[in-house]
């Protein structure tokens, strides 16, 4: 039993971390162990898993045309402080579009990450009308779009 306790504690810690959602842009503060804070940031940037609820912000590097197949999505590419790029697919049938979005604008996000060969996609950046999924959002110029 004593040998299992560290494993149980590690799994519990991981579960709490996942429950809170991953933040891609803000390092975990640590006044006692800066190496641990650095490792947490590296882990968040490199070990994302598909379906993870994540939070972050980036600079719009490209505004794309809307995807009008099925549910309509406003699409744009964000560059994160790490240099990673993410496609944002924001459902504008459920949430309002961000008006006048331009290259160079800062956008904060909270949504679901899906991996792809170009860096990844963020979706579920809106409320869930059925109340079965964690609500996401985008924030631009002080206004939240959800």
Task: List low-confidence stretches.
Answer: 1-22, 25-46
**CA distance, first residue to last residue:** 47 Å
Rg is 17 Å
Helix content: 10-25%
Secondary-structure element order, N to C: HEHEEEEEEE
Shape: globular
Main sheet makeup: 5 strands, mixed, barrel
Mean pLDDT: 76
Which structural category fits the helices and strands?
Answer: alpha+beta
Give the tally of β-strands. 8
Number of helices: 2
Approximately what portion of the residues adopt beta-strand conformation?
A: 25-35%
Strand order of the largest sheet: 2-3-4-6-5
Describe it:
With 146 residues, the chain is an alpha+beta fold. It is 20% helix and 32% strand. A 5-stranded mixed β-barrel has the order 2-3-4-6-5. Mean pLDDT is 76; it is low at 1-22 and 25-46.
Key features of this structure:
single chain; globular; alpha+beta; 2 helices; five-stranded mixed β-barrel; 32% strand; 146 residues
Structure at a glance:
The protein is α+β, with helices and mostly antiparallel strands.
Can you lay out the helices and strands and say which pair or pack?
Blueprint (H helix, E strand, L loop, with lengths): L4 H16 L1 E2 L10 H13 L5 E12 L9 E7 L5 E7 L14 E9 L6 E3 L13 E4 L2 E3 L1
Parallel strand pairs: 1-2, 4-6
Antiparallel strand pairs: 2-3, 2-5, 3-4, 5-6, 5-7, 7-8
């Amino acid at each position: 039993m004593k040998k299992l306790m560290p494993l149980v504690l590690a799994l519990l810690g991981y579960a709490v971390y996942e429950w809170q959602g991953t933040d891609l842009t803000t390092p975990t503060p640590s006044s006692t162990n800066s190496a641990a804070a650095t490792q947490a940031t590296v882990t968040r940037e490199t070990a994302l898993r598909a379906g993870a609820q994540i939070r972050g912000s980036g600079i719009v590097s490209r505004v794309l045309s809307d995807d009008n197949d099925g549910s309509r999505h406003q699409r744009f590419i964000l560059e994160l402080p790490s240099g990673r790029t993410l496609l944002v697919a924001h459902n504008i049938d459920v949430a309002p579009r961000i008006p006048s979005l331009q290259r160079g604008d800062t956008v904060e996000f909270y949504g679901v990450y899906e991996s792809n060969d170009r860096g990844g996609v963020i979706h579920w950046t809106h409320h869930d009308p059925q109340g079965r999924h964690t609500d996401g959002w985008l924030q631009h110029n002080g206004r939240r779009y959800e």
